[in-house]
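Exercise 7 asks you to align residues with tokens for two separate proteins.
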Amino acid sequence: MQSFVGLFTLYPPSILIAVLVIGLLVGSFLNVVIYRLPKMMEADWRQQCSELLCSADTTTNPAPSETFNLAVPNSRCPVCNHNIRAWENIPVISYLFLRGKCSACKAPISLRYPTIELATGLLSVAVIYMLGFNYAGLAGLSFTWCLIALTMIDVDTQLLPDDITLPLLWLGLIVNYFGWYTSLENALWGAVAGYLSLWSFYWLFKLITGKEGMGYGDFKLLAALGAWMGWQMLPQIILLSSVVGAVLGISLMIIKGRDKNIPIPFGPYLAIAGWIAFLWGSDINRAYLQFVMPH
């Protein structure tokens, strides 16, 4: 690690380029996670229901289904089932080379795939640029990649999978055992306060309106953010998420004419606000204090 840190000090552009390439590759994998993980969860729920319903009937067994996970089957065109070859799966480059169309049936490929790949690459570069090529920077990459996956899954399904939120929470506590971002004590109480704050708001809102304002996944996500950054950053994250939500919500209504009565998941706003606070939270707090208490 020390040799790599020295290389970053001597030739920072080369390290950032390498991080960009790795980020693009990870973004390609995140596209798989975003699409497949909710389907894997749904299949698991169906299997559990099937086993429960068939438990009383020993003569009926659910038929085995095709193996479906993050590794298999190979990626295919959703229109013609063409198996995507390795050269067709190079992040961003393949999309440009194929002109956004399947090589077999010429069906359009969603612009979303290269967008997620490029965003993952650029955000990865921002993390290493801000934190440095060290243990804290590498952990920050994992934090960023998890938030990207959670954001897009929540946009698609209004779900925040425990398979990502809970490991993210535990990883935050582990890295702060070493004091990389805050103390372990602050991280522990950040996780507790993050969960309980939204949990309390959920039940208060439900008692007043009879409706559910958010899901339990939001509680776990804010708990994870608190575990990474400490309880002191939670007010800023909640405030930033409200600002991000207002900006994006109004933009969606103006650009797409989205019905204001259609629920918009809160998870993406938390994730975006959490990532901003992760990199620039201290600068934002310092600027705010200088504004309200000028010397």
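Second protein for Exercise 7:
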Amino acid sequence: MSLDFSQRPLLVFWETTRACGLACQHCRASAISRALPGELSTTEGRELIRQVAAFGRPQPVLVLTGGDCLARPDIFELAGYAAGLGVHVAMSPSVTPTLGPAAFQRMRVAGVRAVSISLDGAQPITHERIRGISGHFAATVAAIRAATAAGLRVQVNTAVMRDNVEELPELAALLSSQGVDIWEVFFLIVTGRAAREAELSAAECEEVCHLLYDASSYGFVVRTVEAPFFRRVAAWRREQEPTGRVAVARRFGLGPHYLDSARRLRALLGEPRQRAAAHTLSTRDGSGIVFIAHDGDVYPAGFLPLPLGNVRQQPLAELYRENKLLKAIRGGDFGGRCGACEYRQLCGGSRARAFASAGDPMAEDPACAYLPALAAGA
């Protein structure tokens, strides 16, 4: 069934609470240890879930996130209510003492189909520096194992940044060994607690995308967040299929970082096991994606802080379908290189990064290294 992103999103993210016991250095929400005033009540949460179901079939996937969604006492009640309406539910909890085998079993009973767990390094020192808690690496790996044992579809989220970019091959090997289903790699946006010095350059982002494409041949799907240019890279690689890291580097003008990372990936995992499983569905902030904050405010995405309205006053479907900014995003009415790019519908650039860097959500994405044919000929 084809998806019309002008009528319904693929993913609805609901920040059920800002409360969280972690202090991650790149946190979008600048989460704190307690719930903030104005959080949607259980009754309001049920109404929001009915609005998600009202988009019609195929219904969006509802991702219950935070903060730490498990810090909300009614979270399993809400998950069960959504599942009862036929909405596919995923949860994105923080790894705290609350998240153990019993919590994963409660997710299964409530009808949750998938869980995402954040792991930001291949070794404890890296992950724990980013997450801000000693001993958190071992707890995270244990949580991944427990989620897999519970029969949930397991996604690992990684925020790639200056602190951990050198560990991606080792992290891919770790995820492969744990039987992870999906690796979702978030390319940093300077918002919340994230610092600009942690960002990668456009050339580095390009090399990381090629490495992630390579990694998707080892038993898990690879997706990216705020790096839609990964879809362009995947399209190039599928069209041309150069063999070996040196051939890839020469064909696409990649540097020594890619060559070294690809060498280590192959040394750790051997020959590719399958055809690359790189996710290329053309979602982007506001097109196939919408975000509801803890207080009901609606945004194009969690990293694009431009409020569209509030579900307490206006139905979610109306906000998503009729908002002028979202219509412009879905129409590909971008500026700069993104507007001239032949991949603007497949990719479209990160609207959140455009806003963070230029103050304009329709500007070009500075993390993309590609010079479009139209722009190059101008």
